[in-house]
Amino acid sequence: MTGIRGFFDVENMVPASMRRGELPTNREAYRRMSAIALPSVLEMALMSMISMADTMMVSTLGTEAITAVSLVTQPRLILLCVFYGLNAGVTAIVARRNGEMRRADANLTMRNSLVVTLLLSLVITALALWLAEPFMRLAGAKETLEDTLTYFRIIAAALPINALSLCVCAAQRGVGNTRLTMYVNVTSNLVNVLFNWLLINGVGPFPRLEIAGAAIATDIGLLVGLVLCFVSLLPGKRRVHFLELSRKDSWKLDREALGAMTKVAKGAMVEQVCIRIGFFLYARIVAELGVYVYAAHNIAMQFLSLSFSFGDGIGIAGTALVGQSLGEKRPDIAHMYGKIAQRYALVAALLLASVVITCRGPLVGLYIYSDTANDAYVRQLAMNAMIVVGIMQPFQTSAVVYSGALRGAGDTRYVAMAMIFTVVVMRPLLSSLAIYVVGEVWGRTEMALIGAWCMATLDMITRMALMHRRYVGGKWHAIQL
User: Is 288 helix (H, G, I), strand (E, B) or coil?
Assistant: First the structure.
C-alpha cells in the first residue's frame, strides 16, 4: 500500500531541484484537478457515447450506411484540423493570462481568435463543397459514393458554425470552465440524437431522409451549441465572468495578441494537419480491405474514440492547470498537475481496458443486427479488433495527457514533431506493410485488420515514450508566452 500511496502523493511528483516553494496538499491538488477534469471527462465521454448512438441509428440502414458515414469522419476532421490547432493556442494563452490575472488580454485573445476562425472557416467551407467528390473518392468511397457525398456536403456546409463553437469552448477551458463546455456540447449532441430519430426514419410529420437526415440532425445540433456558447459570453447580472463579450468591445485584430496565439498555434496547426493526414491515410489503407472489413474497423473505432475521450478530458484539465500555474510563475506546480493528470489517466485506462476486452461481444452487438449483411463475419472481425483496443488503453491515455500538458505550456513544436513521426510516418507505413504481408502474401484478409491495429498500437507506444521523455525533462518550464 505504501508504494501505491507514494505513487499518488504529490510530494513524490516534483524533484527537489525543480521546486519553487511549497506544494499544495494532496487534498488541495486533487480537488482542484477533479473540479476541472471531472466535467471535462464527463463531457467528452457523453459526447462520444452520443456519437456512438448516432452511428447505431445509422446502422439500422445497413452496413453500407455505416461505411458511408464513417468514410466522412477523417475528411471532416481534416477540415477542422486548422481550428483544432488554433484552439490549442487559444486555450494555452487564455490559461496563461488567467494565471497572470490579465482578464482584458484574455478576452482580446478570444475575440481575435473568433475573427480569424470565421474568416478561415468560410474559405475552407467553399473549398470543401467545391472539391467534395474528388475528396470522397480519395477517402475510399466507391460503392457508397452517392450516400457519402450527400452526408459530407451537408456536414461541410455547417463548418463555420462548428468552428466558432469550438473556439469559444477552447477559451472557456483555458479558464477552467469545463462545466460550461460540458453543458454546451452535451446539449448540442442530445439535440443531434433527437433529430436523428426524427429524420433518419421519418417520425410523425418529419420526412424519412435516411443518411441526409443524419447529417441535417448534426447541423441542427451544432447550431444549438453555437447559440449556447455565445449566451455563455453575455455579461452576467450578478457577477463578472472572466470571459465576456459586450457591445463596447473592439473586434480589430491586435498584433500582440495574435503573435502570442500564433506562437503556440502554429506548431499545433502543423501537428493537427499532419496527424489528420496520417489518420486519413490509415483509414484509406484499411478501407481497401472492403466494405465489411471497414465496417468492423469502424465499430472498433467507436470504442477507441470513447476511451480516447477519457484521456482527452483529463488532458484538457492538465492543459488548463499547467498554463495557469506557469502564468502564476510556479512551474513546479505545473509539473505536479501534469503528473496528477497522468495518474488519473492510468487508472481510467486500466478500467476501460478490462471493460472493452471482457464485454466486447455485447458491445459489438450494439451495432450488428441479425439481418445485417455478413453479420457473423463483421461481428467476429470487430470483436478481434476490440482486444487490441483494450491493450492500447494505458499507452493512449498517457500519451494524450502528456501531450496536453506540453501544449498547455506552449511546447507545441515538439508535440508536432513527435506526432508527425508516429502518426504520419510510422502508422501508415507499418499498417500498409502489415496488410500487404498478412492479406496479400498469407492470404488472410480477416487477419490483415488485426495487423493494422497492432501497428497503430506500436505507434501509440512510441508516442507515449516520446511525450514522457519530453515532459520529465522539464524544458517546457521556461517557455514564455
Answer: coil
